[in-house]
Amino acid sequence: MDAKRTHTLRNRLLPVLSITAVVIIWQLVAQFIVQNRNLLPSFTDVLGAFLVLLESGRLAFDFGTSLMHFGIGVGAALLIGIPLGMAMGWFRDMNTAANPIIEILRPIPPLAWIPFAIIWFGLTPVAAGFIVFVGAFFPVLVNTYSGFKGVPKLFVEAARVLGCTSPTRLIRYVALPAAMPSIAAGIRIAMGVGWMCLVAAELFVGGRYGLGRQLWVSYSLQQMSNVVVYMLLLGILGLAIDVLFRRYVDGKLLKWRTGEVV
Amino acid sequence: MSKLTIDHVSKVFEKNHGEVTIALDDISLEIEDKEFVCFVGPSGCGKTTLLRIIAGLDTATSGEVRLMDMPIRGPDPKRGMVFQEYSLFPWRTVQDNITFGLEMRGVPKADQKTTADTYLNMVGLAQFRGAYPYELSGGMRQRVAIARALANEPDVLLMDEPFGALDAQTRNAMQRELLEIWEETQKTILFVTHSVDEAVFLADLIVILSPRPGRICDIIRVDLARPRERTSPEFAGVRRYVLGLMNSCQLSQ
């Protein structure tokens, strides 16, 4: 019992120690070795810049705008990717027809779509959302497809014998829940990729707010401390989204798979 | 009344390169209401295929199966099935697994609960209603599978080696419980097994199938009074007799 407590204490303490150590080394290197704020802002420089930005009240708008771009992209990816993946996994002809198109489009990097995003949607949040969409769409599609493809035949037969015979009911009551772990994993990957596309999308599409946008503006103004602030915010927010999603999925959707991580 | 007629059923599987396997060859059998029938035979004798045809999951190449003179065309809640492997839906709780069939038929929620209670009590798992399948032992899972099949109130219960994956002790206990359930619910049960011991313990009628092509080799009526004593000389006698028949079946191939 006592050994266990020391163990958890250690697990809590070690991350705090390692982070503190990195911050101290960072501060010392920036302040005494590099001695150039543009090349490497120190921890205190960044902290100061963060407090100034916080006071200006604009961070909330940057957060909100980035989340909107992200929401548009990921939302559209789920809305199109899940039904299409389901259809391809369930109906063989659908897969044969759609697969070649997908295999051609999939390797195109999301950022290569930026010119058309701007031409089609203008310099709008939708254009930024579209880039996120391209990044998030394929992981959702592919994982939904493989989840549906891998539904155990036994579950389908058990359901049919119990009177669940129409394709739509089999999909709703058997295939969808059975494929849920795979779909959830796909959404998680999609959100990771979408988040990475976000910064690039905001660089090109512009607008007044957005974490990625402000990162670029700060660079143009040579405010490197602000650049670090936005970098860290992007990292922390990305992590928060992932943690919240995992909590929700493990607690609600996949309670029946306790102990397994998505 | 639920007379089941198996009428000249044959099943041929065609492999990719044109080879054919005759899984079932001209099976005919009449099964009376409330009878407990065991199909025994070595693996590959088509006993599972026959059960799947009766369930409506496979179709016969020729011949047909009729339940109360109605030909079987596809799966139907009238014929409940308990599978060999664990077929519970892992994303549903024990209770929600049991009510699945009722939900499909649009039975009101309150009635679903009442039915679930009945069968949960019958299989002795009332306190596990909220558990997920991964929390249950193998024997408990198969009890839930039996309850799930019975909740639909089928005329016939089809069981495909349901206790095959269980350890010997659990298996014996499950056999006794199944007989109690059978006496309580008065269902016709068709039970596939490769264990002669299991068949002699359970069945009114033992149907011995021969392998490739699957044919009915012999039918034995077991007249031992229930509960049957596995260690009694009469039991041993019947078992020896059935084993002897199975051997001569295989030799005559």
Explained architecture:
The complex is a heterodimer of chains A (262) and B (253). Chain A has 262 residues and is mainly α. Chain A has two domains: 35 residues; 212 residues, MetI-like fold, CATH 1.10.3720. In chain A, 82% of the residues lie in helices and 0% in strands. Chain A is built from ten helices and no strands. Chain B is of the alpha/beta class. In chain B, strands 6-7-8-3-9-10 form a six-stranded mixed beta sheet, sandwiched between helices. The longest helix of chain B has 19 residues. The radius of gyration of chain B is 18 Å and the shape is globular. The mean pLDDT of chain B is 88. The chains are: A mainly alpha (262), B alpha/beta (253). At the A-B interface, helix 7 and helix 8 of A face strand 6 and helix 3 of B.
Secondary structure elements and their pairing?
The complex is a heterodimer of chains A (262) and B (253).
Chain A: H1 2-34, H2 43-56, H3 59-90, H4 92-105, H5 114-121, H6 125-149, H7 153-161, H8 167-205, H9 211-220, H10 224-253
Helix pairs in contact in A: 2-10, 3-4, 3-6, 3-8, 3-9, 5-6, 6-8, 7-8, 8-9, 8-10, 9-10
Chain B: E1 4-14, E2 20-31, E3 36-40, H1 47-55, E4 62-67, E5 70-71, E6 79-82, H2 94-98, H3 100-105, H4 109-122, H5 138-151, E7 156-160, H6 168-185, E8 188-193, H7 196-202, E9 205-210, E10 215-221, H8 233-251
Parallel strand pairs in B: 3-8, 3-9, 6-7, 7-8
Antiparallel strand pairs in B: 1-2, 1-4, 4-5, 9-10
Helix pairs in contact in B: 4-5, 7-8
Overview features:
heterodimer, A: 262 residues, mainly alpha, MetI-like fold, 0% strand, B: 253 residues, alpha/beta, six-stranded mixed beta sheet, four-stranded antiparallel beta sheet, 8 helices, 10 strands, 36% helix, globular
Strand content of chain A: under 5%
- The number of helical elements of chain A comes to 10
CATH class of the largest domain in chain A reads Mainly Alpha
Cα radius of gyration of chain B in angstroms:
18 Å
Number of domains of chain A: 2
How would a textbook summarize the main sheet of chain B? Answer: 6 strands, mixed
Mean pLDDT across every amino acid position of chain A: 90
Tell me what portion of residues of chain B adopts beta-strand conformation.
25-35%
Secondary-structure element order of chain A, N to C:
HHHHHHHHHH
In the predicted model, the low-confidence regions of chain A spanning at least 5 consecutive residues are none
